[in-house]
């Protein structure tokens, strides 16, 4: 963890399939980021959280990276999934309380 991982064969195709499914088929708003440090990922997620508004029915966060029991790989330090989910809990995101959030 913390080191830059080589791209997994087919990951670009997987990302495109997700974009097509969520963006084109389901018409979800998509926000992507690539190759971020832990701090940059946290800042990106905070910006995403500010853009989410009550008119959306649900929030889905897909993170496609390597990881293990210590967390999800970033370009420097791992981040634990619970740290990400906590940013979007019902107290920190009261306007979304009771709405589905999928990670």
Automatic annotation (TrEMBL):
Domain (Caspase family p20): residue spans on this chain: 26-103
Record-linked PROSITE patterns: CASPASE_P20 (PS50208)
Source organism superkingdom: Eukaryota
Family matches, as Pfam families: Peptidase_C14
Gene Ontology BP term (one): proteolysis
GO MF terms, alphabetically ordered: cysteine-type endopeptidase activity
InterPro entries linked: Caspase-like_dom_sf (IPR029030), Pept_C14_caspase (IPR011600), Pept_C14_p20 (IPR001309)
Identification of the protein by name: Caspase family p20 domain-containing protein
Organism name: Dreissena polymorpha (Zebra mussel)
């Amino acid at each position: 963890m913390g080191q830059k991982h080589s791209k997994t064969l087919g990951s670009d195709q997987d990302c495109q399939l997700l974009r097509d499914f969520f963006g084109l088929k389901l018409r979800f708003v998509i926000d992507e980021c690539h190759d971020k440090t832990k701090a940059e990922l946290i800042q990106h997620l905070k910006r995403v959280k500010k853009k989410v508004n009550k008119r959306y029915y649900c929030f889905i966060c897909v993170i496609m990276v390597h990881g293990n029991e210590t967390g999800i790989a970033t370009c420097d330090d791992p981040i634990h999934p619970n740290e990400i989910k906590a940013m979007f809990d019902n107290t920190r995101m009261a306007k979304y309380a009771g709405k589905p959030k999928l990670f």
